Amino acid sequence: MKKVVGIFIINLLAVLFLFAKGPQIKFEKKLIDVGKVPINTKVTGEFKFRNVGDEKLVIYMVKPG
Fold this sequence. Notes:
Blueprint: H1 2-18, E1 25-27, E2 49-51
């Protein structure tokens, strides 16, 4: 009986995680390949994203990587 209850709880948590509410970010592309770049050359890129969640998405402390 304990195994059945444990399996039920694990499945319930998995379902809750899949349907979690709140902000969720979705990127069009996660990587931009710029190829070989000469030294001291400025390269820019643009990442398009949208909030697919059901609450306001707030982004703090953006840093280049």
